[in-house]
Structure prediction request, 282 residues.
Amino acid sequence: MRAGTILMALASCPAAAMEAAEPRPHVDMAVSAGVEHASPGEPFELVTTLHVPKGSHIYWRDPGSSGMPTRVRVTAPAGCRVGPVRFPRPVVLDEPSGRVQAHEGTVHFAVAVTPPASWPMGTPLPLTVRGDWLICRSECWLGKASVSLDVPVGAGPTRGTPAGAHAAQLPPAVELRPGTTARIDGGELHISGPVDAAGSPGFLLVRTRGLSLGTPSIAIHQGRFMLTAAVAYDAAQAEGGGARLQGLLTFGDSVRDPAWAVDLPIPQGGPGTAPHSGEPPT
Prediction:
């Protein structure tokens, strides 16, 4: 995390680095496996839960106009594969700094962990999860916690746990949505598929350096939608691993409404177009 990012985030909440004028809100962090026992060579969900006090919020992986992304890091034994963190759909809040994308209440994050195929049966898998967040109310505070646990390892079928049920509620990959496609073509992001009863489609971009997205245009025809937005990518400005467009396809306005994760590679050489508000497709 860059120092400048922290300073900017704290600056959005007055006196955050000063003596607090109100009690610091406490965030409880818990970590659970999504299965009763893991199996060597088989992935399972590791779920981190943050309990955010009422009236406070933490931030999505892209906080918006201010704030700091919530981070979850998993430390696992050599040979384990640890996937990316899966975030729930955020709530969009209007603050003096502008629109922010945040989480309130009880928030679940999931990471797929795969033990080595050679991991011995009956030997627990030791894992440690570190969480970092910025919690804001009328002021903001940095918070962190670390939780270690040993996940049982055994053979045969295993039953899911409540944590696994929480992981299953997180936005799935857009490729799994029936009749839906997402691609970058001709310098534009195109997402199309059936409309949803929850409401109009939208897109929340995970911003990275060197990547910009124009204002999406949406056309609806015969029960299907087409979302189009211009993409600009400057490889010289990008950081390592930034050659992907990631975000959420959303429907409706509530965090309980459907959302689908989009993760697309930027075409080699970049789209080569500047962001703009496109005309609806025909």
Q: What stands out?
A: The first helix runs from residue 3 to 11. DSSP finds two helices and 18 strands in the chain.
